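Researcher: I'd like a candidate sequence for this fold, 552 residues long. If you have to choose between options at a position, lean toward the conservative one.
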């Protein structure tokens, strides 16, 4: 079988066994004796794969694939372990998260006093006058039952300005020195699309600002990251994602600097996932003038959609809803951009051949965004625009029908029910049956994806599976059980659907001959697992492009 001609004749005789036509017909690695769930509808199960130059060279039964083994080919016995295609996180913020993990205090702690202690420690190491920066603070996850306020921050850090970003990224908390540096006082009016919170009884600043009011701080906090820092951030987050089985991620709020960071990390060998890099609308003119549009790049770093933002967030309860938040009768959430603004930028992008991804959480936000997309298609029909609805959280029958008609792609939060269960009461049990609505999307034939939105959500794919399949949080509360999907559907959502969302369904998302060799080896079979323990299934290995990016 070592002679090329013989092998070709042998292969020609096997049915349901295809070979990728490479000039070099020798695999460099064979994985065998596995339970391989391919997500290829034509050939859903396999035992072995051969890999050549980063792609699947053959997928099939042990004996057939092993017959391809020429001298010097590496072989690995999978010991019957389950293999899935590598997971695709269709909405996340890896570049920024990586930088934050490098430089900021991780405030994902369970009490205000623990956060204060960590801030004190950080301040002691911070030169006088410089900012103490934190992220991943979550007001609903501290035992105190109240949010962090300006007095908490002043008492912990009196001599440095403090700025802490909420886990959701749409609100920030500051101490008095921080407000002073940002030029905010009690009389500063709310900017359009933003809010500066006051203590109702005294009118004093209470420490929190929301949405566009964050810009006051962005102007004064120095972002003196070097080009190397940005690459280091991508390197750090690469390792974090790889160990959970992620092989591709959409960078949902990218800038030209992020695009460069991904390229730098690719060139230095530190990029362990494939990045589909959205570009924020503010950069769209410059990039379009340079001849850039969606799809430019290679299988590791590719220019994604233009990003727009319509409304607020789910985790921080600022999404724009048609019916107010539970217990807050006048609070409908926030619209961040007007419909006209969305249309103006959308039109530019649509005409220049960009895909568009608009952050739209609440039913009002989704309705507004769909109106813009419908208008663009009416005025200038494009064959396959794959409009994206980033998050697309709260739906109804009318929205579903319009999403289907447009062929639009929702990227609902995958881990929120499980991980953010304590926030669900603000929406109420009935509304939850129409949120993160995978059952509704799949039943309508809409190709929804898996999406973490990290840092706001956890990015662990096995947690996404459990959340989507059980609709149950960590305390055992069920939220929106009508939207449950099966484990197999959840895997499809997290793999091939994610590839479709970036126009890469012919390149990845399933274990198929000719596709990129991206896969994950699991310690147990999710299809046989009790759904309530899916999150505990260990990821043993992750492979991207034929290279192990994580090994236990
Ligand atoms: Zn996001």
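Model: Candidate sequence:
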């Amino acid at each position: 079988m070592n002679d090329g001609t013989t092998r070709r004749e042998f292969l020609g005789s096997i049915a349901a066994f295809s070979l990728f036509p490479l000039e070099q017909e020798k695999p460099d690695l064979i994985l065998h004796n596995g339970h391989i769930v391919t997500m290829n509808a034509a050939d859903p199960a396999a035992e072995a794969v051969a890999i050549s130059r980063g792609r699947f060279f053959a997928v099939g039964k042990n004996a057939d694939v092993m017959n391809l083994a020429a001298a010097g080919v590496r072989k690995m016995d999978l010991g019957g372990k389950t293999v899935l295609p590598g997971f695709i996180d269709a909405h996340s913020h890896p570049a920024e998260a990586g930088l934050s993990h490098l430089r900021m205090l991780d405030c994902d702690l369970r009490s205000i006093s623990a956060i204060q202690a960590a801030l004190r420690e950080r301040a002691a190491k911070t030169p006088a006058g410089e900012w103490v920066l934190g992220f991943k603070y979550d007001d609903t996850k501290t035992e105190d039952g109240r949010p962090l306020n300006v007095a908490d921050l002043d008492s912990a850090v009196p001599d440095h300005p403090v700025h802490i970003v909420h886990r959701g990224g749409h609100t920030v908390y500051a101490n008095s020195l921080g407000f002073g540096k940002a030029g905010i006082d009690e009389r500063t009016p709310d900017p359009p699309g933003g809010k500066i919170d006051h203590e109702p009884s005294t009118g004093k600043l209470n420490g929190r600002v929301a949405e566009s009011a964050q810009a006051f701080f962005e102007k004064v906090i120095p972002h003196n990251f070097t080009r190397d820092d940005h690459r280091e951030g991508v390197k750090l987050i690469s390792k974090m994602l790889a160990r959970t089985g992620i092989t591709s991620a959409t960078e949902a709020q990218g800038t030209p600097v992020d695009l460069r960071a991904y390229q730098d990390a690719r060139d230095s060998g530190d990029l362990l996932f494939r990045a589909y890099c959205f570009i924020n609308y503010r950069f769209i003119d410059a990039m379009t003038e340079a001849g850039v549009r969606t799809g430019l790049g290679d299988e590791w770093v590719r220019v994604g959609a233009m990003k727009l933002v319509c409304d607020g967030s789910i985790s921080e309860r600022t999404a724009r809803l048609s019916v107010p938040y539970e217990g807050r009768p006048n609070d409908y959430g926030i619209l961040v951009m007007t419909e006209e603004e969305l249309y103006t930028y959308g039109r530019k992008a649509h005409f220049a051949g960009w895909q568009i991804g608009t952050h739209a959480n609440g039913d009002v936000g989704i309705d507004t965004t769909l109106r813009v997309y419908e208008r663009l298609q009416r005025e200038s029909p494009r064959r396959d625009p794959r409009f994206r609805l980033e998050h697309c959280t709260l739906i109804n029958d009318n929205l579903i029908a319009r999403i289907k008609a447009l062929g639009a792609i929702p990227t609902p939060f995958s881990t929120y029910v499980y991980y953010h269960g304590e926030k669900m009461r603000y929406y109420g049990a009935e509304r939850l049956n129409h949120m993160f609505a995978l059952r509704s999307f799949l039943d309508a034939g809409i190709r929804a994806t898996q999406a973490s939105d990290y840092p706001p959500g956890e990015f662990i794919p096995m947690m996404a599976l459990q959340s989507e399949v059980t609709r149950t949080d960590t305390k055992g509360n069920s939220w929106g059980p009508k939207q449950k999907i099966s484990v197999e559907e959840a895997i499809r959502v997290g793999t091939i659907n994610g590839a479709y969302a970036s126009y890469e369904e012919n390149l990845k998302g399933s274990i198929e001959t000719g596709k990129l060799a991206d896969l994950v080896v699991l310690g147990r079979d999710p299809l046989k697992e009790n759904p309530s323990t899916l999150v505990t299934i260990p990821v043993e290995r992750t492979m991207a492009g034929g290279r192990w990016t994580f090994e236990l």
